Amino acid sequence: MGLTEREKRLLAEMEAALASDDPRLQSALTSDATPRSARLKSPSLLKGLALFILGLSALFYGVIAAMYLVGIAGFILALVGLILTIDRIGSAASFAGSAKVRAPKSPRTNFNQRMQDRWDQRNFE
């Protein structure tokens, strides 16, 4: 079921309001500099995931075998792997959102008030 012209117009207005309110989010959602598959196959991301899995394995082995030093070392390895993975994902996300989009500044009411006005108009039409 397609959108009506009025719904398309409202959607376009909401997108424009989003672009003017938060240009970084809008640019991150619309343009992606590197394909997702390339980011997921990154060597540092894979190394971080492997280190995390190895650390979890060592942690569980140390707890099950009552070798607490091995468990502590496994926890540290898992933590380092998780930090490396999150850092890689964060740097890829910041790279994708690094293009700054400047929206023209115009005196407007806030977004919530405009949406409330539109809702009121919809109910009374």
Features:
single chain; 125 residues; mainly alpha; 6 helices
Describe the structure.
The protein is an all-alpha fold and 125 residues long. It has 6 helices and no strands. It folds into 2 domains: 55 residues, no CATH class; 62 residues. The chain is elongated, with a radius of gyration of 24 Å. The two termini are 23 Å apart.
Which helices and strands appear, and what pairs or packs with what?
Elements: H1 5-21, H2 23-30, H3 36-40, H4 43-64, H5 68-96, H6 111-124
Helix pairs in contact: 1-2, 4-5
Please provide a brief summary of the model.
The protein is an all-alpha fold. The protein contains 6 helices and no strands.
The beta-strand count equals 0
Percentage beta strand: under 5%
Looking at the structure, what is the overall shape? elongated
* Helix/sheet category: mainly alpha
**Biggest sheet layout:** none
What distance separates the N and C termini?
23 Å
Q: On the 0-100 scale, what is the average pLDDT? A: 78
Helices and strands, in N-to-C order?
Answer: HHHHHH
Given the structure, what is the number of helices?
A: 6
Measured as a percent range, the helix fraction is: over 70%
Oligomer: single chain
How many whole angstroms does the radius of gyration measure? 24 Å
In the predicted model, the low-confidence regions spanning at least 5 consecutive residues are none
Tally of individual domains: 2
